[in-house]
Amino acid sequence: MDTTLEQALAESNRRVIFENQREKLLETLLADLFYAFDGGYFKLGPELFIEIKINLAEGKKSFPLLDIHMNPIDIENPEEFYKTTRSLYNEAINKYRINLAKLKRSKNTKNLVEIYLEDDDIVE
């Protein structure tokens, strides 16, 4: 086979693997952006953080929040809840950012596959 054709096929294969690995990283991120708390399930993100901050700014010591299933969940210690959810959110985003950067730096197919296989070693 012509070396140019071989190189083109190798690059095409690398790009397909890159996209598959990036999709797996994104799926992991989306899973990490959910938080189970007191029987509720919350999606971590700006909307949740703003709602918590508004209630704190109004001086509320506890308040209900609707989880993703529209169930009201009482937040008894909103400052601690805010710190925990922000920390989990930042960890998830940082983990995704670091591993996506590793993926982008990979120049060959073997390295692309190894990044996802090292899932246990993913920086958190």
Protein model, in words:
- Helix content is about 65%, strand content about 15%.
- The protein is α+β, with helices and mostly antiparallel strands.
- It has one domain.
- The strands form 2 sheets. Strands 1-2 form a two-stranded antiparallel sheet. Strands 3-4 form a two-stranded antiparallel sheet.
- Strand 3 (about 65) and strand 4 (about 70-75) form a beta hairpin.
- The radius of gyration is 20 Å and the shape is elongated.
- Mean pLDDT is about 85; it is low at about 120-124.
Estimate what percentage of residues fall within beta strands.
5-15%
The major sheet is characterized as: 2 strands, antiparallel
N→C terminal distance: 44 Å
Average pLDDT for all residues:
86
**3D shape:** elongated
The helix/strand series, from N terminus to C terminus, equals HEEHEEHH
Q: How are the strands of the largest sheet arranged?
A: 1-2
The helix/strand class is alpha+beta
Percent helix range? 55-70%
Q: Please give the domain count.
A: 1
Number of helices: 4
As residue ranges, the low-confidence spans are 120-124
| Count of extended strands | 4
What is the radius of gyration computed over CA atoms, rounded to a whole number of angstroms?
20 Å
